């Protein structure tokens, strides 16, 4: 399966098998191997070892590094198979709802440009990114490696050239460069991981030390001085270390940071064990026929497995179990075998000149981009809020003659496939505070001279109601200011924030700042709207924050949460045979136990309840009054929220409509 000139270190090839199996099992059955994501870190160490070793050998032999030749070899090795998978993903786009097409295309574009890790880093702090799993997300690690391949020789060559002229040993010069880059990257990773884990996980700057660790092993002579017995011990310890990390780590582990030291050092130990001759070494496993084969196809196997998992989930609407997961694994191996034999090995063994290789690489990237972008033109997606066009929306539910089951699902606004784009303007105008910051931002609508001055505070469940007040302000009924922050509970007690894997101190600081701001502004009415997804432990902090406002003499009115569907509304409409049953959950199920209601009762406050505008006595439909209600599982479309303006006018006794 390998080109004759392709040098293989069998222990490294077996280590590739361990890495790819860890990732596959984690992605297919995450509960079985909750820390299997460390397989990616093992790949980083391997890449650092092989690439740095190749560069230092070339420099020692020729006194230079052929940078364009190096790039050409990387293109032949990596780009053909990646292009095939990217095109396959592009061709699968029609299987997804049209509302997801832009995100998938963006993922294809970011992957083709090898900046997918930065694209996902931006999404990691974007509350609108949701929990959608893009079929190209796994290209983030390939992007890190490719950026390393591009930058590393450009850093090494001039420094090594100067070092040679000064009479320094090239390997020592390599070692010092690696030490500086690696230690700086590790320090930054340790610093950033607890503070901003979303960016820390994907950033090249926090991962470079893992590749540098492999590079350090490549230029070191320590490995050559190890006895066979010591190598055997290192190999077993390394395999055990990777296994411990794979089973002991999970989504709550602050990673990479210090935690990444275990799997990366373990991977380095396995590489250092190569050449052990003792019968009890880890080489027995690593050199086995199965592990060598899996190592051979590991690159293509990594490329294929994730799109298959995502497409399976999209088509079936469920996560893989034991039997279907096994089928996905077998299908991934089958495609990986074909891809390795007919794509990877064919191009790797090719003899195209460097110039033509670089041109072919550019052509592969261009073909992927053109195919992906063509879907955006085909989809003709409308973006952003749309006009109500005279439709009653929410107000239809309080009309005794109205029957939502008779709605024409083909004639609704926004169209279900574009509902994900129908978001409030607050995200475009950036007046909704992001997770990392604590300053008070305000979304302002209306004239300060209006009779009623209203402030609404909360998280995205406050923000998705702002279009209703934007409409009221436009008609002169209110002067409205929205004060909201992503995934943040208005509370005077910090709570654990899973994405940050620590206490959400930015939210606590924001809440304190909001209280100080309200004390200065003194609005006529303060509305509080929160998601119902926060833990029970937050009730005390919520009550304390609300009590502070009441003690100031402010009129505080909590807003009961809106329904939580348990499914994506657009997907349900696209696949259901009877939307009035499948896409209209029972009222008792759609309403979670709401902390807002509990705290309201404790403080003897009467919450504002919009339920009658969203549900009948039994169900909560996804289409009301000709308007599509939800843009995802629990956020309202901006168009439907706008139709709630009359509901707020009625419930808050804001008087008649202004002319």
Offer a concise description of the structure.
The protein is mostly helical and 659 residues long.
The protein's oligomeric status is single chain
Per DSSP, the total helix count is 28
Backbone shape: elongated
Low-confidence stretches: 1-6, 126-131
Distance between the termini: 78 Å
Strands side by side in the biggest sheet = 1-3-2-6-7
Main sheet properties: 5 strands, mixed
Beta-strand segment tally: 9
* Tally of discrete structural domains: 2
DSSP strand (E) fraction? 5-15%
Rg of Cα set: 29 Å
SS-based structural class? mainly alpha
On the 0 to 100 scale, the average pLDDT is: 89
The level of helicity is: 55-70%
Notable traits:
659 residues; two-stranded antiparallel ribbon; 28 helices; Acyltransferase_3; transmembrane; Peptidoglycan/LPS O-acetylase OafA/YrhL; membrane
Layout of helices and strands:
Layout: H1 10-28, H2 39-62, H3 67-92, H4 101-112, H5 116-124, H6 139-165, H7 170-192, H8 197-202, H9 204-219, H10 222-225, H11 228-248, H12 261-272, H13 283-286, H14 289-296, H15 298-316, H16 322-348, H17 354-379, H18 426-429, E1 443-445, E2 452-458, H19 460-463, H20 466-474, E3 478-484, E4 496-497, E5 502-503, H21 505-521, E6 525-529, H22 539-551, E7 556-559, H23 569-575, H24 579-582, H25 587-590, H26 595-602, E8 623-624, E9 627-628, H27 638-643, H28 645-651
């Amino acid at each position: 399966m390998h080109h004759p000139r392709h040098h293989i270190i069998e222990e490294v090839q077996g280590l590739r098998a361990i890495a790819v199996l860890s990732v596959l099992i984690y992605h297919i059955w995450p509960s079985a191997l909750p820390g299997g994501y460390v397989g990616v870190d093992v790949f980083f160490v391997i890449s650092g070892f092989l690439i740095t070793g190749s560069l230092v050998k070339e420099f020692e032999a020729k006194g230079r590094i052929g940078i364009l030749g190096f790039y050409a070899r990387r293109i032949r090795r990596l780009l053909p198979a990646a292009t095939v998978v990217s095109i396959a993903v592009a061709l699968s786009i029609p299987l997804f709802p049209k509302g997801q097409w832009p995100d998938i295309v963006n993922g294809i574009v970011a992957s083709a440009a090898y900046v997918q890790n930065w694209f996902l880093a931006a999404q990691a702090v974007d509350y609108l990114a949701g929990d959608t799993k893009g079929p190209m997300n796994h290209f983030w690690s390939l992007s890190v490696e490719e950026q390393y391949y591009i930058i590393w020789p450009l850093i090494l060559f001039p420094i090594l050239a100067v070092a040679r002229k000064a009479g320094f040993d090239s390997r020592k010069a390599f070692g010092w460069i690696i030490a500086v880059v690696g230690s700086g990257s590790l320090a930054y990773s340790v610093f950033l991981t607890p503070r901003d884990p979303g960016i820390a996980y994907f950033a090249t700057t926090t991962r470079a030390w893992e590749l540098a660790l492999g590079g350090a092993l490549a230029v070191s002579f320590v490995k050559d001085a190890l006895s066979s017995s010591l190598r055997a011990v290192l190999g077993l310890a390394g395999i055990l270390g990777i296994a411990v990390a794979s089973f002991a780590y999970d989504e709550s582990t602050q990673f990479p940071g210090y935690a990444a030291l275990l799997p990366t050092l373990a991977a380095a130990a396995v590489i250092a064990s190569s050449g052990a001759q003792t019968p009890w070494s880890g080489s027995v496993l690593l050199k086995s026929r199965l592990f060598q084969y899996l190592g051979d196809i590991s690159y293509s196997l990594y490329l294929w497995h994730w799109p298959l998992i995502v497409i399976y989930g999209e088509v079936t609407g469920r996560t893989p179990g034991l039997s279907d997961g096994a089928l996905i694994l077998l299908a991934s191996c089958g495609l990986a075998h074909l891809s390795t034999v007919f794509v990877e090995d064919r191009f790797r063994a090719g003899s195209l000149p460097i110039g033509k290789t670089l041109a072919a690489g550019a052509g592969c990237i261009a073909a992927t981009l053109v195919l992906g972008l063509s879907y955006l033109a085909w989809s003709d997606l409308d973006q952003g809020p749309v006009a109500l066009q005279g439709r009653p929306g929410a107000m239809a539910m309080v009309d005794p003659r109205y029957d939502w089951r008779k709605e024409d699902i083909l004639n609704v606004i926004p169209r279900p496939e574009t509902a994900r784009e129908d978001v409030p303007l607050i995200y475009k105008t950036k007046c909704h505070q992001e997770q990392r910051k604590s300053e008070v931002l305000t979304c302002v609508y209306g004239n300060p001279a209006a009779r009623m001055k209203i402030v609404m505070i909360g998280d995205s469940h406050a923000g998705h109601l702002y279009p209703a007040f934007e409409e009221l302000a436009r008609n002169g009924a209110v002067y409205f200011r929205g004060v909201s922050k992503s995934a943040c509970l208005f509370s005077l007690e910090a709570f654990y924030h899973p994405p940050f894997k620590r206490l959400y101190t930015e939210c606590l600081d924001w809440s304190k700042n909001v209280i100080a701001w309200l004390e200065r502004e003194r609005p006529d009415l303060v509305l509080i709207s929160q998601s119902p997804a926060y833990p029970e432990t937050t009730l005390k902090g919520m009550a304390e924050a609300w009590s502070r406002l009441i003690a100031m003499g402010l009129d505080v009115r909590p807003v009961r949460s809106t329904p939580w569907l348990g499914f994506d509304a657009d997907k349900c409409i696209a696949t259901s045979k009877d939307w009035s049953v499948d896409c209209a959950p029972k009222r008792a199920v759609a309403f979670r136990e709401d902390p807002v209601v509990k705290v309201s009762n404790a403080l003897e406050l009467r919450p504002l309840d919009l339920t009658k505008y969203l549900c009948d006595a039994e169900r909560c439909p996804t289409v009301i009054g000709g308007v599509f209600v939800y843009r995802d599982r629990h956020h309202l479309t901006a168009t439907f929220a706008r139709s709630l303006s009359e509901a707020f006018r009625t419930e808050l006794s804001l008087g008649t409509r202004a002319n």
